[in-house]
Amino acid sequence: MDKLHAMRVFVRVVEVNSFTKAADTLGLPRASVTTTIQNLEASLGVRLLQRTTRKLNLTLDGAAYLEGATRILQELEEVESSFTSARKTPRGRLRVDMPGSIGRLVIIPAIHEFHSAYPDIELMLGLSDRPIDLIQEGVDCVLRVGELQDSSLIARRVGAFRSVTCASPSYLAAHGTPKTLEELQSHVAVKYFTRTGKVHEPSFERDGVEREVKMAGTVSVNDADAYVTCGVEGLGIIQPARFMALPHLSSGALVEILPDWRPALMPISALYPQNRHLSPKVRVFVDWVAEIFERCPLMQGEDLPADACRGEAHRPKMPEKAQKLPVAVDSVAMDQEGACLCVV
């Protein structure tokens, strides 16, 4: 039995959730697809799929085999692409993970450009801040914010941003506007905590001096959008990324405070496993992300005033007719409108 062929057939059956559709897309007789799966299960000595009259379900063994087979097929594709024309025309599925705020506000509004340049790449975008194991989860590339931990991953810095200390007018009317870091002790902050449970305290930098201020808090969240919303609703002082806060600063829903003490610059890096180092898909995607960030001063760590991006010239140029893009978006609410005002 051709194991690679069996893997491809199995993965396609799972993708389309149908033996018949898999046969059609692979150009094979349905009986051949059925026989291939049966022989694969017999060879492995386990049941991979639970078949009913309406749908197919993966068994636990099937889920484990799918993960391994997908990874093997992807790696084989990368090796073959190094010796074929795929180096010039990247193709195939590319799985990327990034923070939800960057994906929703910066990457997705411009993603039609990537599809136009590389129509044969199918993007799978995971939007989350959680730490992931790229190898175990079959992810090709991640975008991460902050200083990087030592690892075996290859990293490339693609941008940076600064946060802004701010609060709502209602909060400042009720508690006063702090003029010094010492006055923050009598104020309340909305806290942000990571998936590991670490709580980030407000931090500041001036003339090379960094200071962290521990503040009282009544609410903590682990989602960037919720964090900004808490600030807008007057629940406390926040330090969101300026690219997220700028529309609220422009509208007056948030007011910047302590402008002389700025939060430290936060680098944005693309990371990928060593076996993806020569991948044409990963290379062109990372290059494209770096180009998108380079267009936007906010994603280069610059501090733009609240009214800097009000003009139409700074708004993203979308196609007249939206294309149906081959993009799978994971774990993000797409009913909220948002765009990086500096992407052009």
TrEMBL record:
The keyword Repeat does not apply. Keywords: DNA-binding, Plasmid, Transcription, Transcription regulation. One of its GO terms (biological process) is DNA-templated transcription. SUPFAM superfamilies: Periplasmic binding protein-like II (SSF53850), Winged helix' DNA-binding domain (SSF46785). PROSITE patterns: HTH_LYSR (PS50931). InterPro entries: LysR-type_TF_proteobact-type, LysR_HTH_N, LysR_subst-bd, WH-like_DNA-bd_sf, WH_DNA-bd_sf. Residues 1-59 form the HTH lysR-type domain. The keyword Transcription applies. GO terms for molecular function: DNA-binding transcription factor activity; sequence-specific DNA binding. PANTHER family: HTH-TYPE TRANSCRIPTIONAL REGULATOR, LYSR FAMILY TRANSCRIPTIONAL REGULATOR. Belongs to the LysR transcriptional regulatory family. This is Transcriptional regulator, LysR family. It comes from Azospirillum lipoferum (strain 4B).
